[in-house]
Amino acid sequence: MNVLALIPARMGSSRFPGKPMAKILGKPMIGHVYERVAKSPMLALTAVATCDKEIFDYIESIGGVAVMTGDQHERASDRCAEALLKLEERYRTKYDIVVMVQGDEPMTHPDMIGEAVQPLFDHPDVKVVNLLGSIKDTAEFEDRNCIKVVCDLQLNALYFSREPIPTRCKVDEIPMGKQVCIIPFRRDFLLEYTRLVPTPLEIAESVDMMRVLEHGMRVRMAPTSHDTQAVDTLDDLKKVERLMQGLNA
What we know:
The chain is α/β, with parallel strands linked by helices. Helices cover 34% and strands 21% of the residues. It has helices at 29-38, 53-61, 76-91, 111-122, 138-142, 187-195, 200-205, 209-214, 234-244, and strands spanning 3-9, 23-24, 27-28, 45-50, 66-68, 97-101, 129-134, 148-151, 157-161, 177-180, 182-186, 220-223. The strands form three sheets. It has a five-stranded mixed beta sheet, sandwiched between helices. A five-stranded mixed beta sheet has the order 9-8-10-7-12. Strands 2-3 form a two-stranded antiparallel ribbon.
């Protein structure tokens, strides 16, 4: 299959303005994400989708591929759908799978791409997959920037929330899972997603995947064997820099 990785990034984050260009170990965060994702042997192409020329110019300066999108998108998935069509036109090709990797996942391991994509190879009926990470402490469970997820027995997502789920009273008995924002779509389903009407819980939780669930479709979760830390705040940035000190960043 022809697999494309798209990294949506914009400077106007409400929680951390300018986040993609914030430096970790002397390198902009978006550079770490791009270089790590591009190492995956699963991918035909890795590109950054952005509405900001500063990000576009930086990615091109390191020899990467970037595509400019409109600035109207509320959801990263919608930005990726626009970028997909522009890249297909640019390279005169068609991609089978689009892996969306959020630009605030600088600890992405290349093997995580394979972990996320595998269910699409194994199950023709699966249309979209999210990586599933483990929540290891109460502080992360309570953190609104950490998107919690509960699943059915087949590892399909039941609900995503910024609130602590499942119930706190059983927190020691039930595994606590979080969304890791490496999200492969089948190409045509990504385009279908953009045509779906945004939904109340998607807007309330600010989670793209709630649009899928509220329209009655499934999101398959794929456990990852890698630990990762997303960057939502300046404190997260400092934590990630400490964690990455010993890595080949």
